[in-house]
UniProtKB/TrEMBL annotation:
Pfam families: Bac_luciferase (PF00296). Gene3D superfamilies: Luciferase-like domain. It comes from Tianweitania sediminis. GO terms for cellular component: cytosol. Residues 9-257 form the Luciferase-like domain. This is LLM class flavin-dependent oxidoreductase. One of its GO terms (molecular function) is oxidoreductase activity, acting on paired donors, with incorporation or reduction of molecular oxygen.
Length: 339
């Protein structure tokens, strides 16, 4: 069995060829797709966060709205760029959204990737300290966020408050018990996967990672997952660490699928998303269901993970993306023992 969800970047474009022409379209369609995915039997609705872009940005209003419209499905991010985040304000927003959803948030965090503008986090009021990199700043924000989610009091109460206080130091409210155990880290290297394991965060591994061996993408990703699990075991956590991978997978079951993806012949490739940091980018999968089953059997990282996030082409509309999800659940997952 494997958890299967979708991951949407929430792109929008005013082009008449787009089915998602405005930010309102992207948000409202995201809610409707989550509702449809739950009805189809999917396990998760996840959203990517990008700033200064025609994509989904501030995640918590969306997560709260999805939580209010659904009952069972996991609701998450993959990922929130922690260079941009005030960890205390984020803890309040996350606690509120998680309570609305009844404890179903699965928050993926990350040190971030290249954005639409140069050092965009500076516009949000953040600056690395002397001797600190922007990645260090993101990890520091993350560690503060995790500490606050523990729900321990840390703020000195006003001796003459407007409203009565409970005894002792005060914590942020609202606090959602259990959210701390549902935080994930999007790791691009083996070392950061191991760091996440030590802190008790689950692992999200995307369709790219920094190249650390020259091996095929899925092999490097599987090695990263195994390194994460070893670090989790060494840390002595009592609960089980989860791992998700994301993939573009399309079962060609009708003429629409063949028109959109029938000519997809993608493969792994190597390139640079940051200067002097070579990355390996994973392939997409698009084929008839029986062919897909055989191809996916050979993906070592999918086999290692407990959760698969299907990246969806959100600008093709809710109905088509629901079809994409249903085709995997119905025609592919059973043949792989995922259902």
């Amino acid at each position: 069995m494997k958890n299967i969800g979708f991951l949407s970047f929430g792109h929008w474009n005013p082009s008449p060829h787009s089915g998602t022409r405005s930010a309102a379209d992207a948000l409202l369609q995201s809610i409707e797709l989550a509702v449809a995915a739950e009805e189809l039997g999917a396990d998760g609705a996840y959203f990517r966060v990008h700033h200064f872009a025609r994509q989904l940005a501030s995640p918590f209003p969306l997560l709260a709205a999805v939580g209010a419209r659904t009952k069972r499905i996991e609701i998450g991010t993959a990922v929130i760029d922690m260079r941009y985040e005030n960890p205390l304000y984020m803890a309040e927003d996350a606690g509120s959204a998680d309570l609305i959803a009844g404890g179903r948030l699965q928050l993926g965090l990350s040190r971030g990737s290249p954005e639409q503008v140069i050092d965009g986090w500076r516009y949000f009021g953040y600056q690395p300290q002397d001797g600190q990199s922007e990645a260090d700043m993101a990890r520091q924000h993350t560690e503060v966020f995790l500490q606050v989610l523990r729900g321990k009091g840390f703020a000195e109460p006003n001796p003459q408050p407007m409203f009565p206080n409970p005894p002792g130091l005060l914590r942020l409210e609202p606090h959602s018990e259990g959210l701390l155990e549902r935080i994930w880290w999007g790791a691009a290297t083996n070392a950061t996967a191991e760091w996440a394991a030590k802190l008790g965060m689950h692992l999200q591994s995307s369709t790219l990672k920094f190249d650390e061996s020259g091996k095929p993408f899925h092999v490097q990703q599987a090695e990263q997952i195994r390194a994460y699990r070893e670090a989790w075991k060494a840390a002595g956590h009592e609960r089980t660490g989860r791992v998700s991978v994301s993939r573009s997978i399309f079962a060609l079951v009708d003429d629409r699928d063949r028109t959109y993806f029938g000519n997809d012949r993608s493969s792994d490739h190597f390139g640079y998303i940051e200067p002097n940091k070579r990355a390996v980018f994973g392939r997409s999968y698009a084929a008839e269901p029986d062919v897909l089953v055989e191809q996916l059997k050979g993906d070592e990282a999918i086999a290692e993970a407990d959760t698969l996030l299907l990246t969806v082409p959100n600008q093709l509309g809710v109905d088509y993306n629901a079809h994409v999800i249903e085709a995997i659940l119905k025609h592919v997952a059973p043949g792989l023992g995922w259902r």
